[in-house]
Amino acid sequence: MNRAWLGSIVLALAMTSACSRHAAGPAEAPPKAFGAALVLVSGDKQAAGVGSALDQPVVVQVNDEKGTTVAGALVRFAGAGGVIFDPDRGLTGSDGQFTTNVSLGGVHGLYRIVAATKNSSGKAAEIRIDEIALGYQETLGKQVSDIHCVRCHDSESTPERVSNHDNLIAQAHSFTDGAILNAMSDADLAAIIGHGGAALGKSAEMPPYGNTLTKPEIDALIGLLRALADPPYRPQGIFYAGR
Ligand code: HEC
Asked: What pTM does this model have?
């Protein structure tokens, strides 16, 4: 057998095995235990720019029938539309939890991802987790909101970790509150943001931003509210995990 020919076979074999490894991902650790249910610990409903990583990891937990955490259970993540999980599978730790970092795909919209585990008889338990990829304008809206709005409209935290939400008399709704915000037209949103609560006969605790923000910034905020709405404002652009 001539050497060059042998060399090309070795190369071809090396390439085939490299490709199949790539397709299958790293060798999967076999589960050491099985649970009956998956619950979300943290990391759903985050919004990040298209193609970028979510700020917080997604953490899920495997429980048995009694609700006790299960260590060593296999968890797999799946998503469509170019979502990347790092890692996409693995065993739960001693606390019964599995953590993954998520990067969203290149198209803005809602990404519905799935985490799954199997019980000892092979029956799958899964949970769906929603994340939102913001387009360019919506990302600008988020930057403006982080500076001017979240301190009243987000009860949990702001980039500075302070919230004024609980000190308000009138209720400033979360920007994810589709039940309230989907009922408001773009014109009403522009009016309340530009002229304050009084413009719509609402509380003056909602300040006017017409002198602080430009029209493109107010349009970007409206785009953000539409993108974050749950239930969705427009049902297009939803990426469901493949089954
Ligand atoms: C100082 C606190 C405060 C800040 C800052 C603030 N808001 Fe508000 N906002 C309110 C309150 C209070 C209401 C509820 C008014 C009512 O229902 O009478 C409200 C209402 C709204 C509403 C109507 C829907 C709802 O939640 O009831 C929109 C839309 C809105 N604000 C957008 C914004 C945007 C966009 C920003 C940032 C540019 C912002 N707000 C900043 C306090 C605030």
From this structure: 0.78
Give CATH 1.10.760.10 domain extents, the chain.
Answer: 136-228
Residue 129 beta carbon below 6 angstroms from any ligand 1 atom:
no
Ligand 1 centroid – CA 175 distance (Å): 9
Q: What is the CATH number of domain 37-134?
A: 2.60.40.10
Residue from 206, 31, 227 nearest 130 by CA: 227
Q: Whose CA is nearest to atom 40 of ligand 1?
A: 149
The minimum-distance atom of ligand 1 relative to the CA of 197 is: 15
Six token digits for residue 196 = 């304050």
Q: How much is the pLDDT for 12?
A: 33
Residue 115 has pLDDT above 50, yes or no: yes
Say which residues have a Cβ less than 8 Å from residue 147's Cβ, sequence separation at least 6: none
CATH H-level superfamily of 136-228: Cytochrome c-like domain (1.10.760.10)
- Which atom of ligand 1 approaches the CA of 170 most closely? 12
